[in-house]
Fold:
Amino acid sequence: MSDTSVTFRVHRFKQGDEEPHHDRFPVDVGPRTTVLDALTAIRRSQDPTLTLRHSCFHASCGTCGMKVNDQEVLACVTNVRELGTDEVRVEPLDNAPVISDLVVDMGPFYARFDVAERPLVRESELVPGSRAAAGIPYPERYEDCIECGICISACPITGTDPTYIGPAALAAMDRVRQEPRRVDVPSILRLADDPHAAWRCHLAFECTEACPSNVDPAGHIMQLRRSLFAREWRRPSPEPEGARR
Amino acid sequence: MTAPLRSPAPHVVIVGGGGTGAALALDLVLRGLRVTLVERGEITSGTTGRHHGLLHSGARYAVNDAESAIECIEENQLLRRVAPGSFEENDGLFVGIDDEDMAYGEKLFAACGETGIPARWLSPAEALHLEPNLNPDLKGAIQVPDATFDAMRLPLRWFATAKAHGAVIQPFCEVTGMVVRNACVMGVRGRDHRTERDFEVGADLVVNAGGPWAEKIAAMAGVDVPIRPSPGVLLALRGRLCNMVVNRMHKSGDGDIVVPQRALSIVGTSSWVVNDPDDLGVPEDHVQKMYDEGSKIIPAVRSAPFRQAWSAARPLIGGPGGADTGRELSRTFKCFDHMERDGVDGFVTISGGKATTARAMAETTADVVCRKLGIDMPCLTRQTVLLPHTAYYAA
Structure:
């Protein structure tokens, strides 16, 4: 299949600008071209001043979250032709300060996310039917959340209540509840048990819809609430299962 | 002008915000220098973030390149100590599926012994117990201490720790020229794309850590660095097909590794040579090769849902002409002091190497930098435990 031309309408903003504006760039796209490919091609051959975040190119790092035709996506796995539009609108994520063009400041995201103290690595999962190799005390695997900020952008509450801790942090708290890994679960659940935390969500499920990494933040928030209702975390608990190493 | 009795610490500007630049920024600030790092785009947006995330045991190089193998196993063990919680520490397998593989396996096992890489033979039944998705016709496997790391989040820990020690990290600042006087590099100039304002930063020394872009950066100082950007195609599939890193037990070739990572399995890689590291493309026949070769070690590669295919450019060292696949270029790194080599002072280039050895590359480079600046301070990155990656974004 030969290349076809698609117009990209891209959000532009530089520090010191009074207002953002949009620039249009024609880009030849092939069957594999992603939004990220198109944006890096624009930077290479049309406008070297375009700023965007990217790193892994395969939905593992979470840096290229942005809004494409009003949907939060990872640009690296968003195929341009599959969008099916002659013009592709590209905007930075919502609910995060814009540094320039498509680049948002992840500082506020991590300030909330870090509160959950969730370790990066799970210690509990094997491929079905397998067992851990000799010398490996337990199998390790990165958590699914890639800290992209997409759920925060999609969440209707975060947009109206800046004190809401947001779906990413709540999902991380619930992961700690499920698999403590030496983290003090009651202290984390006390943080979740707050009008601006687990109880603020009104279950719009936009976060789960938008999540590119199958984290299901809304499902985690419901589980958190259930465990807060049950107050199971207030009972003295035996040594958590994850605390083995 | 006479120097004040207690002059401030020398200022080093690092050009390039990949893993090497990150580890170098940390190494230099820990030795008491002032550091500014400038990167054209977001940090880790070049080669660093795009690799498959293999923490090499060194076994891949043990047969043909003992020097690289020893570098790898040393760094493999060291990084687990300084960056706890950053790895999927599930080891790796080299899997033999025919007699030729098994003959290579004998050499591999012996070479692991000679280079200090822990290795043990597994029978086909033992290997299939650990990894039921392996090719059921395998003839044997060797377990080695490979691991997986997050290609962005490990370097972020160097960046975070460097920042906490005072390094200034400036993403989206593109260097467009060097300030050169009397054959000495005195700083860099460029454009901050967050503001679209020009900048100029003075430096006692400039380090070029541009990876496959190092040749372009060196040209700004009027020197030639023989970098051959050598891309490889990688394929990400949904779902974990294995717990451990699975390698084909034969000499390095296309599609000979499957790296489980988070909820994905990464099949890598191929190798060719380009001139422009900004224009790699993803050749369709290379993607097909990942399926064809990868499915020989794990048949489910062929049926697993596709996530993405992409290319990453290795910054291999080699002169123009000659190599055309990149496989014959050395995977070790090289630090160029351009005073010794080209008569240009105040300018050092680090290139080559691989993600697993980024810290060692930085140590070697920092030794050269300190020698040139007359500073006698030991390297501290071997024992300094790194801050978590999230600390990079802290205000």
